[in-house]
Design a protein that fits this description.
447 residues; alpha/beta; Rossmann fold; 41% helix; 19 helices; 4-stranded parallel β-sheet; 15 strands; binds pyridoxal-5'-phosphate
Length: 447
């Protein structure tokens, strides 16, 4: 009986899939906040290298993965596709549950897929140093690993609540040679301003992004790297879905439901996007994006132009948003605490291709514990959301023999403090008050 499917190194995809040209009704372009006109690569070139900007704007369906990037990806890729038979048995369901295990990367999550590519294109264009933000610490660890491979310096602004809760993420980034600071920090103008105004803030990804952008904009040797949301990140993550398609074929199965947790949307879109052409040709697939009830950008936010950060330094992106100055509560799924959502995922929701759902953190930890006790791997709190979604799908009608594929975006071995809090009853469910969302949505930029 098949438990897992492992591809050989030479079966790893050699091209990424770009979903943008296949999106029904396309994407609206990023806008320059000053002129409200579409923003071209000239202006964005101050913070991103041309190689990545070309990918950001590309209408090519397939883009070659450079050999240097492939070589590093092969340290852990192709990643396994696993049939969660023990979980199925525990649930008493006839559904077949598969997960793509991105937790096998050296830093423990899918984030490394894009970090390696981003470090490569920056190094190729002579950049010496990258600045970035990190929520849960997964992206910061990934970029620390990748910059080390390409001899770049790296500065990570880590959201304060995670910085305090996850000391070993910091150690990991230091091991790879990065410089880490708690955000909001004293190192940037915007950081100092927020610390003065809100001394007790838990921090937020939107704040850390502002700090990292200010850092990159103020130095000639530095560019900025973003771990989710943007088209080029989702391009790099498409390797997940491309591999999964081959593996599902070897398993002799095809997914009826595809799920992932949604923070900025990159792991979910990475798995789901390569299935879009099949869907458009008539294959019946249900795409389910799972978000936390405490930061519900897809289910309670608005599709609008908004900034990606608090200090309004990014271009305006057309995306599902809760408002750029929305500061989510310090729930433990740090990587899901973002006010916006990838324009690609937002467009797929707009076209009714993706069904978003929101779940509470206690049911997610419960799902994560069940997963650990059945399949053996302890999931990251973010990943617990995807598992909860898969369990909802698998138990809605236990006699329906459908096939469910979800993205296991990362392991939780460095998140055990969150599990401790769960076990000691310190975690609570939290619905973000609708009136607070309405207030921050009222401050959306006027287009
Ligand atoms: C393990 C894990 N899963 C999911 C996410 C959410 O990000 P995205 O929606 O871009 O995949 C994060 C972000 O930090 C993460 O660390």
């Amino acid at each position: 009986m098949m438990k897992k499917i492992i591809l050989r190194d030479d079966q790893m995809p050699t091209q990424w899939y770009n979903v943008v040209p296949d999106l029904p009704n396309g994407l609206l372009p990023p806008l320059d906040p000053e002129t409200k006109e579409p923003m071209g690569p000239e202006k964005l070139g101050a913070v991103f290298p041309m190689g990545l900007l070309e990918q950001e704007m590309s209408q090519e369906r397939f883009i070659d993965i450079p050999d240097e990037v492939q070589e590093i990806l092969k340290i852990w890729r192709p990643s396994p596709l696993v049939r969660a038979r023990n979980l199925e048995k525990a649930l008493g369901t006839k559904a077949r549950i598969y997960f793509k295990n991105e937790g096998v990367s050296p830093v423990g999550s899918h984030k490394l897929n894009s970090a390696v590519a981003q470090a490569y294109y920056n190094a190729r264009e002579g950049v010496k140093r990258l600045s970035t933000e990190t929520g849960a610490g997964q992206w910061g660890s990934a970029l620390s690993f990748a910059t080390n491979k390409f001899n770049l310096d790296c500065k990570v602004y880590m959201v304060r609540v995670s910085f305090d809760q996850k000391p070993y993420r910091k150690s990991m980034m230091q091991t790879y040679g990065a410089d880490i600071v708690s955000s909001p920090s004293e190192d940037t103008h915007i950081g100092r301003q927020i610390r003065e105004e809100y001394p007790d803030t838990a921090g937020a990804l939107g704040i850390a992004i502002s700090e990292a952008l200010e850092d990159a904009a103020s130095r000639d040797d530095t560019k900025y790297a973003l771990g989710s949301v943007l088209n080029h990140v989702i391009l790099h993550q498409s390797i997940i879905g491309l591999e999964a398609k081959k593996q599902m074929e070897i398993a002799g199965d095809y997914p009826d439901v595809i799920l992932g947790c949604c923070g900025g949307g990159s792991n979910f879109a990475g798995l789901a996007a390569p299935y879009l052409p099949d869907y458009l040709e008539g294959k019946k697939i249900r795409f389910v994006g799972v978000e936390p009830a405490s930061c519900p950008s897809l289910t309670m936010g608005k599709l609008a132009y908004d900034f990606g950060d608090v200090a309004q330094m990014t271009p305006l992106l057309n995306m599902h948003t809760l408002g750029h100055d929305f500061i989510p509560p310090g729930i433990h799924a740090g990587g899901l605490r973002y006010h916006g959502m990838a324009p690609i995922v937002s467009a797929m929701v707009r076209e009714n291709i993706i069904d978003p759902i929101r779940v509470h953190q206690l049911e997610c930890f419960e799902a994560g514990v069940l997963f650990a006790r059945t399949e053996g791997i302890i999931p990251a709190p973010e990943t617990c959301h995807a598992i909860r979604g898969a369990i909802i799908e698998a138990t809605r009608d236990k006699d329906e023999p459908k096939s469910i594929l979800f993205n296991f975006s990362g392991h939780g071995l460095i998140d055990m403090a969150s599990y401790d809090k769960y076990f000691s009853g310190e975690l609570h469910n939290y619905d973000y008050p609708a009136e607070d969302i309405a207030k921050s949505l009222a401050r959306l930029p006027k287009i």
